[in-house]
């Protein structure tokens, strides 16, 4: 497709304004080999990308497209799917009280866990940003729950800690608070999962820490000279300078929280109980698909979640204009 | 017809991709092509769910089978209940069904209806012997006139109770013919005398509601797969548990919500109740995990003098895949597991009482402590046990889960009994009417 004219145009561009005529002549002679090398590089790049492209097509894009198709069908894994139009969607929105239970539970979880987790992450990042001995150790120690937290093992530990007769129940009983096991009661069960989620603040913490390191020290010095105390410095220097990182963490953690599954699945033994109090959206989707074999319905649920998350992300980016500050940018 | 073949291949690929979405792990098995060797050595796959005891006994029995039939190799797989059915469904959908499959009442009808199972009528009496089985039990594997499954055992509902705690309350140990009113009085007495509620709240399981319905001449599901009870029936059942509960006769909500039929989550085993209703195939589990008291068994109460509500149920059934490349070998294994005395001795009561009556007699004659308890309980209720309640229709797994979730709302006081009962019936009717 590349015509000699465009090649010449590219070669004659003023990318290298200092280039002298003789050298230009030399380069004109070497034009063709260079462009074919570039084409060769392009081919090599595609070749090297093949595993990734194949993976994306076969494992992500393909199945996602199939699930979009399945969401308009009634599909039980055994019989071929048959087209039912929007019936999965209308059933979900109008005739499935448990679906709305799941939406409510998930929304409550997200609203609780995201701010708590981000606040914890920022607080610990501020602590770890100070120069201190053994800093590396503390950073690893605070990051560890993020590596462990999503695992089945920790969810099992959580179940043991918060069940009736478990450690927390015993400790609270010893100081005269008789609540019983938190995971066995609908009014507390979700909070144990919020705790489990918030405890895994390591990843946003590391990102906050990196953001804090980027803030130039002279801003703080100038603020201190002007008489700003630590709290004023935090709100007037740290927060605005960190706001792009905050937005990034907020978007990522919100998406993450909507997709929470393992903790609820393990702690409630896959049921979402007691009394639907921990029935996360993803857990209900899983039950519909893999316990009831209603893959069409589960696919429809997955697509509604995807669209809702997309819309929510757009809204978050929309609000960003009001509160996110990029260095070098004039504030309105 | 290359075009048709191609579109079939495309559809199959699409199905496999769908399976990948959620179950990447089973991709290899789901999409792998099943080899079909002709003549010579044959290999078949046999799958089941269950705990480690059952797995050990079954693998030992399979090893004995392979020794007796050197030309047949059996690959076995087992998993926990939920994981088992998730995996099985994906394998069957991907065209890589195992040859011999373990099913239960909630799934047999569903798999038969999907055309997954091989009718066994042309084998029974020839290579598959069923004459030694109890006819009542064998009937549970018949669907619309054909034999699709062979029961893998027999189990019956029971009340297992801590004899020590019950006698401390001064109540007479329950016997055949006792009523729910007596049960209520005794449970409350045990709760008052010992501080431990007399029994586990039995409102959580649709299985025990099924017994209650039978005592009132009804069924959970009609033979054509419709709902067989009304919201009023369920409200009466849950009002019964609510009344006993309010007098401290039944376990607390925090204990009840954990119930799943396993001994690990049992309120009786964790000392939050002094008795519990379960299938007697779990009795060995109770006996091995219960500390600090002597357990005894009793039939469930009934308000009906002629119907005990107890039924002889197959805890599991075995069926052969219609797409099996070696149905003869699979049938041979099934026959061996069912009728071979050696296999019977190895399997013991790991799937309830052996289905073959002569093997049952010899297993019970040589029984040690816990197996003996199962045998003697079955013997004591032999005269009042009725036939199996029959298979459950498609969607029954979802209905069972819904039943328990909504009962959680009742015990935690988040809804009224009548509203909850109406919701169960409404949800169930909607589930059953799905195409």
The third-level CATH topology of the domain at 92-323 in chain A is MetI-like fold
Query: Which sheet architecture does the biggest sheet of chain A show?
Result: 2 strands, antiparallel
Helix content class of chain A = over 70%
Any low-confidence stretches of chain B, pLDDT <50, length ≥5? 1-7, 9-38
Summarize the model shown.
The complex is a heterodimer of chains A (332) and B (435). With 332 residues, chain A is mostly helical.
Structural notes for this entry:
The complex is a heterodimer of chains A (332) and B (435). Chain A has a domain at 92-323: Orthogonal Bundle (MetI-like fold). In chain A, 72% of the residues lie in helices and 1% in strands. Chain A has helices at residues 4-12, 21-29, 31-70, 87-94, 97-128, 135-149, 152-162, 167-174, 189-199, 202-214, 217-225, 230-258, 262-267, 281-291, 295-323; strands spanning 73-74, 82-83. Chain A has a two-stranded antiparallel ribbon with strand order 1-2. In chain A, α5 (97-128) runs parallel beside α9. The radius of gyration of chain A is 27 Å and the shape is globular. Chain B has 435 residues and is of the alpha+beta class. Chain B has two domains: 3-152 and 314-380, 3-Layer(aba) Sandwich (D-Maltodextrin-Binding Protein, domain 2), CATH 3.40.190; 157-310 and 395-433, D-Maltodextrin-Binding Protein, domain 2, CATH 3.40.190.10. Helix content of chain B is 46%, strand content 10%. Chain B contains 18 helices and ten strands. Chain B has helices at 2-22, 27-31, 52-68, 81-93, 105-113, 135-138, 163-168, 180-194, 206-215, 231-246, 253-256, 283-289, 327-339, 341-347, 357-365, 369-380, 396-411, 417-432; strands at residues 42-49, 72-79, 100-103, 142-143, 146-147, 150-151, 157-162, 275-279, 295-298, 317-320. A five-stranded mixed beta sheet of chain B has the order 2-1-3-10-6. The two termini of chain B are 31 Å apart. Residues 1-7 and 9-38 of chain B have low confidence and may be disordered. The chains are: A mainly alpha (332), B alpha+beta (435). The interface between A and B is large, with 48 and 47 residues.
């Amino acid at each position: 497709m590349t015509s000699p004219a465009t090649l010449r145009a590219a070669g004659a561009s003023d990318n290298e304004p200092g280039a002298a005529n003789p050298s230009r002549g030399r380069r004109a002679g070497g034009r063709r080999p260079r462009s074919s090398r570039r084409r060769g590089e392009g081919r090599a790049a595609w070749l090297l990308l093949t595993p990734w492209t194949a993976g994306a097509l076969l494992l992500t894009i393909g199945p996602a497209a199939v699930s979009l198709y399945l969401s308009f069908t009634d599909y039980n894994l055994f019989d071929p799917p048959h087209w039912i139009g929007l019936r999965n969607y209308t059933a979900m929105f109008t005739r499935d009280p448990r679906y709305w239970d799941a939406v409510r539970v998930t929304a409550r979880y997200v609203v609780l866990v995201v701010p708590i987790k981000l606040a914890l992450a920022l607080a610990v990042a501020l602590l770890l940003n100070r120069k201190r001995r053994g800093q590396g150790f503390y950073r690893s120690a605070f990051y560890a729950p993020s590596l462990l937290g999503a695992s089945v093992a920790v969810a099992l530990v959580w179940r043991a800690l918060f069940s009736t007769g478990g450690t927390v129940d015993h400790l609270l009983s010893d100081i005269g608070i008789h609540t019983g096991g938190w995971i066995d009661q609908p009014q507390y069960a979700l909070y144990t999962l919020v705790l489990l989620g918030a405890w895994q603040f390591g990843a946003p913490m590391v990102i906050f820490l990196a953001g804090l390191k980027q803030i130039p020290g002279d801003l703080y010095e100038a603020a201190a000279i002007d008489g700003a105390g630590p709290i004023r410095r935090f709100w007037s220097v740290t927060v605005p300078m960190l706001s792009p990182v905050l937005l990034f963490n907020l978007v990522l953690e919100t998406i993450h929280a909507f997709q929470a599954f393992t903790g609820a699945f393990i702690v409630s033994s896959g049921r979402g109980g007691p009394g639907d109090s921990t029935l996360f959206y993803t857990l209900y989707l899983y039950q519909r698909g893999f316990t009831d074999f209603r893959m069409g319905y589960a696919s429809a649920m997955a697509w509604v979640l995807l669209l809702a998350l997309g819309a929510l992300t757009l809204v978050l980016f929309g609000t960003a204009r009001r509160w996110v500050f990029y260095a070098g940018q004039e504030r309105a | 017809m290359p075009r048709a073949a191609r579109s079939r291949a495309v559809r199959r690929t699409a199905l496999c991709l769908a399976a990948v979405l959620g179950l990447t792990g089973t991709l290899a098995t789901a999409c792998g092509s099943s080899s079909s060797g002709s003549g010579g050595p044959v290999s078949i796959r046999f799958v089941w769910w269950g705990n480690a005891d059952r797995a050990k006994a079954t693998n030992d029995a399979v090893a004995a089978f392979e020794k007796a039939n050197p030309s047949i190799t059996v690959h076995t797989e087992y998993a926990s209940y939920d994981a088992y059915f998730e995996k099985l469904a994906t394998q069957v959908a991907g065209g890589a069904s195992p040859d011999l499959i373990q099913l239960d009442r909630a799934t047999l009808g569903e798999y038969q209806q999907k055309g997954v199972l091989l009718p066994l009528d042309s084998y029974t009496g020839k290579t598959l012997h069923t004459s030694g089985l109890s006819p009542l039990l064998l009937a549970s594997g018949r669907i619309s006139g054909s034999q699709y499954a062979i029961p893998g055992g027999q189990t019956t509902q029971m009340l297992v109770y801590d004899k020590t705690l019950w006698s401390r309350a001064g109540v007479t140990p329950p016997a055949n013919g006792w009523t729910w009113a007596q049960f209520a009085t005794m449970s409350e007495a045990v709760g008052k005398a010992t501080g431990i509620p007399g029994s586990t709240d039995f409102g959580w399981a649709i299985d025990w509601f099924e017994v209650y319905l039978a005592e009132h001449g009804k069924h959970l599901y009609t033979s054509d797969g419709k709902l067989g009870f009304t919201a009023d029936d369920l409200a009466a059942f849950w009002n019964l548990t609510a009344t006993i509960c309010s007098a401290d006769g039944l376990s607390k909500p925090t204990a009840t919500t954990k119930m799943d039929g396993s001994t690990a989550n049992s309120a009786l085993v964790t000392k939050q109740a002094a008795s519990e209703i379960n299938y007697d195939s779990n009795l060995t589990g109770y006996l091995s995990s219960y500390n600090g008291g002597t357990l005894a068994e009793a039939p469930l109460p009934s308000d009906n003098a002629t119907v005990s509500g107890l039924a002889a149920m197959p805890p599991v059934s075995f069926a052969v895949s219609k797409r099996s490349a070696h149905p003869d070998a699979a049938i041979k294994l099934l026959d061996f597991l069912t009728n071979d005395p050696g296999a019977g001795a190895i399997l013991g009561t790991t799937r309830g009482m052996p289905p073959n009556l002569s093997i049952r007699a010899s297993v019970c004659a040589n029984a040690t402590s816990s197996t003996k308890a199962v045998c003697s309980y079955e013997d004591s209720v032999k005269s009042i046990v009725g036939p199996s309640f029959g298979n459950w229709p498609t969607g029954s797994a979802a209905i069972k889960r819904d039943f328990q979730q909504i009962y959680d709302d009742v015990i935690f006081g988040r809804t009224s009994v009548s509203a909850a009962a109406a919701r169960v019936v409404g949800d169930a009717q909607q589930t059953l009417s799905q195409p």
